[in-house]
Amino acid sequence: MLSARDRRDRHPEEGVVAELQGFAVDKAFLTSHKGILLETELALTLIIFICFTASISAYMAAALLEFFITLAFLFLYATQYYQRFDRLNWPCLDFLRCVSAIIIFLVVSFAAVTSRDGAAIAAFVFGIILVSIFAYDAFKIYRTEMAPGASQGDQQ
């Protein structure tokens, strides 16, 4: 039998190393247009979460939920791990993520501004900026991936 020390001193097999390389971060994606959009959405969502935590803690769950959803999409796209789930329509999921975030942040931002607290007003301003970024992202997704004739090109 192998003791724990013997197992620790062995070299990893090829299969284990190949599995770990599946989570390698694609730095080209992080500097691409889509990567920068996701990073901006993630940063602004975190700022809004902090503002809601400081002022109205009842609304912080929405910002936290969108933060984790955006973080998951950033991780899946940056590691190219989404390609392993070929049965999912990723552009449609990404589009729905943006549309749901637009609705959630519009409602929560306008509800928060009624409290007249400084942090709530800051959350409102960042929320409106974030809604415009999510709307731009949804527009780009629809235009490039989902619009009728997007796959046909300019052959009309």
TrEMBL record:
Keyword list (alphabetical) reads: Membrane, Transmembrane, Transmembrane helix
Where the record annotates domain MARVEL, the positions are 29-146
- What membrane topology does the UniProt entry give? Multi-pass membrane protein
The portions of this protein that span the membrane are 42-61, 67-83, 95-113, 119-139
Does the keyword rRNA processing feature in the UniProt annotation?
A: no
Q: What is its main location?
A: membrane
Q: Where in the cell is it found?
A: Membrane
Please give the GO cellular component terms listed in this UniProt entry: membrane
InterPro entries reported for this sequence: Marvel (IPR008253), MARVEL-CKLF_proteins (IPR050578)
- A single Pfam family it belongs to is MARVEL
- Which protein are we looking at? CMTM5 isoform 1
* Source organism (scientific name): Pan troglodytes
Q: What is the primary gene name for this protein?
A: CMTM5
